[in-house]
Hints:
By secondary structure, chain A is mostly helical.
Amino acid sequence: xxxxxxxxxxxxxxxxxxxxxxxxxxxxxxxxxxxxxxxxxxxxxxxxxxxxxxxxxxxxxxxxxxxxxxxxxxxxxxxxxxxxxxxxxxxxxxxxxxxxxxxxxxxxxxxxxxxxxxxxxxxxxxxxxxxxxxxxxxxxxxxxxxxxxxxxxxxxxxxxxxxxxxxxxxxxxxxxxxxxxxxxxxxxxxxxxxxxxxxxxxxxxxxxxxxxxxxxxxxxxxxxxxxxxxxxxxxxxxxxxxxxxxxxxxxxxxxxxxxxxxxxxxxxxxxxxxxxxxxxxxxxxxxxxxxxxxxxxxxxxxxxxxxxxxxxxxxxxxxxxxxxxxxxxxxxxxxxxxxxxxxxxxxxxxxxxxxxxxxxxxxxxxxxxxxxxxxxxxxxxxxxxxxxxxxxxxxxxxxxxxxxxxxxxxxxxxxxxxxxxxxxxxxxxxxxxxxxxxxxxxxxxxxxxxxxxxxxxxxxxxxxxxxxxxxxxxxxxxxxxxxxxxxxxxxxxxxxxxxxxxxxxxxxxxxxxxxxxxxxxxxxxxxxxxxxxxxxxxxxxxxxxxxxxxxxxxxxxxxxxxxxxx
Amino acid sequence: xxxxxxxxxxxxxxxxxxxxxxxxxxxxxxxxxxxx
Lengths: 566, 36
């Protein structure tokens, strides 16, 4: 990295942090601190919701996903607009009428304090760990490709986020997310235009799409009912709605974003903005990845994009075999570039077809070499990360973008990491303060609660840094965090679905059902009954089923509950 | 006092978001027909 890249990177990040801290410097009440004084307009909410979901991994991993597997991943987001409409119709009016600070606060007014506390604690465990991984995941990739110190990188990202999140609360989070989203959009657009510019002169955008299509990268929709294929139209519409409903409707890191709206209408419009822009945004990020694929049809690409994995095999007894594969790939690259140039120039349809077949064969041969390389890496180090999709886009950035723009694109990645982390810390702080501390110690002055809120946000920031810094000590911590999420998430969503849609079920039934469900789900995970992602759906179904059954057995014996919670 | 069920109010923006996303999917279909 050149000095200009460092200036752009540090300048962008510092400006965002200082601007956010300065713009949100006066926080007098808990309402100011956790709802930003309820002054956010719809587009601030919309951007904030999008920035929270789009972590650094979105910008590192998604283009790599498209590079390897094409555009099909966009189907994963098809359920999101449906979930936005359901939340606007059902969830948001209730949250708004009760003037809650957290999603879990609503559960006290619908059920009881026990249920509220239980769901709040489940959220804190899951999100507290996930927050550390939000920092760690980009750090491990950037440290591998740039040689930066992993420990210091974790601390730098964490401390930058802590500075403005602790001092300015929700307002600082949303103000900085506006700047971060601007940096992200500008950076990704410039990257996209540059890739097109780097293609040979006679390869237009339409021809680039043809090349991508000829190599199976434009298979956007899959209407099959194939359960082995993770991304189909149906899994996107059904599973996507379910997942988006749980994430946007019950996860405080998202709920807090739209609770800061100045009115119900503004909050609803913010979510609608997300529903309108999310699918095109993901499509665009995937298209960037597909264009990187087309770029590498005319330029040599590495046999494997993960430098740590390559390093492992190069320092093993398999180094010579790997080197032979690399030489073989270079030969294939030269043939491929020649064939692609001929394909681009071909006018006659039969000639085009001929070259398309040749290109497809060469790409398949390259894929064969990549598979052999992965097998060698696995032999050299069985624990090495052989899925290199997270490294494709960053490799392209570092090796091809002009000076200054490398700094900007790194700022995109770190901005994305910071925006997600800030929302998570903000939500962890608000849940700890509102659902646990203030609920059990009411009647203190606002100043006291603001100070406590800051202390809890700081505490979660430190925990996140500790988790991020120790993550490399565990082989599969990211997977562990996902498993923990799946163990708790389904249960929490089931409780919320009962609260919103099944009014027959009362507090005692739901609390007992939640406890039983949690034990069952942990047991299912322990005996490895099913892939852990299914635990979400199963947990949700079990808690609803048991609660309904218990309610029938218990009858209508639950006491009536007050309308509002504290 | 028990909670009153919320009145469901359908808005034009909900129709808009669902229609636009249906249009996106149709455009993806056309794109796929042309290039896949």
